[in-house]
Design brief:
This protein is mainly α. The protein is built from four helices and four strands; from the N terminus they run E-E-E-E-H-H-H-H. The protein has one domain.
Length: 118
Amino acid sequence: MHDVGVGTAAGSSARLGWLRDVAVPGGLGELRGWLSGVVALPARLFWSGPDPRAVRWNLADSGRRRDLYEIVLVEGTLDDVRELVNGPELVRLWDRIYLPPWVRAAWQPLIDAAVAAV
C-alpha cells in the first residue's frame, strides 16, 4: 500500500495535519469492484443529504459509478477501495473523476503506470 502522508502529496499547499492519508493499493489488480448492481455506502463514507442511508448507486450507470469512486477514493479505507473500485474502470474514468489535488497526486503514479502498460 502506498500512503501519501499528511501534507506530503505533490503540489499540496495545505499545512501539515490538514490532509488525511490517502489509501492507495500496491496495484490496480487489487481493485475488484463490481461494474453492475446497486450499492449503498456506510455512513462513515457517505453522510450527505436528508436521508443518506436511502441513497443508492447503480453501478451499471457510469456516471453514478464515477460519483461513487470520487467518494470512496477520498473517504475510504484501503479495504473500501479494494472492494468498491474496479481497477480498469478507474483508469477509464480517471479524466472525468473530480478529486482533491492531494488524492489525485497520490493515485496518479498508479494510473500512469496502467496507461503506459496498455
